Fold this sequence. Notes:
By secondary structure, this protein is mainly beta. 3% of the residues lie in helices and 41% in strands. It folds into 2 domains: 33-122 and 129-166, Jelly Rolls; 190-370, Jelly Rolls (Sandwich), CATH 2.60.120.200. It has one helix at residues 304-315; strands at 2-3, 19-20, 34-41, 46-54, 58-65, 68-74, 79-83, 94-101, 104-109, 112-117, 133-136, 156-162, 171-172, 188-189, 192-195, 200-203, 220-227, 232-239, 245-252, 255-260, 264-269, 279-284, 288-293, 296-301, 320-323, 339-347, 350-351, 359-360, 369-370. Strand 9 (104-109) and strand 10 form a beta hairpin. 37% of the residues are buried. This is Sex hormone-binding globulin.
Amino acid sequence: MVPCLPHPGGVCSKTGPLISPPRDPPCSSPPSAASSFDFRTFDPEGVIFYGDTGPDDDWFVLALRRGKPIMQIHNTLTNVTVSGGQRLNDGQWHQITVRNEGHYVMLLVDGDDQLTLSHVSHPIVNQPAPQMRIGVGGLFILPNELLVPLNPALDGCIRRWDWMNTSQEWHEGASLHDRDAKACFTTVQRGSFFRGNGGAVFALSDLPSGLSPTDGTWLLSVQLRIRAGPQLSSLVAVLGFKQRPVLRLTLQHTDLTAELSNQTVLLLPLPEGGCLDSPLLLRLTPSSFSLGLGATEISKPTPKAEFESLQQLWLNNLGSLVVGGESGEEKSQEGHFFHGCLSEIRVQDHELDFDEAQYRSDSISAHSCPGSLEGKVDEEDGP
């Protein structure tokens, strides 16, 4: 989760809770049991915020699942989960309000009541309250302790937040100046944004085999659509023994290259100016090794030994597929990692979800790209 900057009260990230109140003294009774904020995402699943007065006996989670809000409440009165209402992962700003009134907990979206739970909470207005913690974009409990399991990571953005409508100063668990703190983009579009300093790794065992259901033949197909400027970077790599690349698809300033086992190379010139905004298709069959960009395609005969080596690696789940680099680990080496928007990537006709990656650099926004590659933020919310 990414905050619009600057704004008092805390920050949030995709990977963990970053807001907590001061430990001394304990929280006094809040004047109003309501929290509100503006929220925007394309991500269908993840934690929006978590709150507790004790992780063992009193916690609340607001999250998304299949694009719709889901509330989970665990306390001495009940263990309950409810979901429904409108889909919120449409890339538009929505005003979210969570309110506690007596024994009721209500979720309002853009002023409309979406979810209401009754007899699930003690009244907390005008009552002594213990220390309260709020985590934005993450949990203070383990994911397997949730009543309904979900992937906590959420690629989203919040702004104009007001936690419990209290003037009490909150203690920030992380700083806006931390490396992982990110600013909201002015406009967003669907896709995955790579900032040029990290990649994502998928185990081959988690990807489709590519075997034909009719005759059992094997082929490899990788389809991408990207928006990027001229650069020297790796788009896709299949790694084998000792993490050595067996297949690579790279951007080399004005050219797009595909390399099979460091021997068979395809080179396709990019459009004038080097900017890329066209569908790509890399395809390997027993007879041909081809690379297509828009309506242009080049190919070479496939060497039998190189094909069989990659086929054996893939079908025996002995390697990994790296997107956005030749390794997922972050490095200082410039020009190694892809910088741009990956609108779509399909491997063996299966669309990859970066939330399901074996490893993903926290610099990657899994479900959103800036409307422009400059990555500007809202003028009213920060530089």
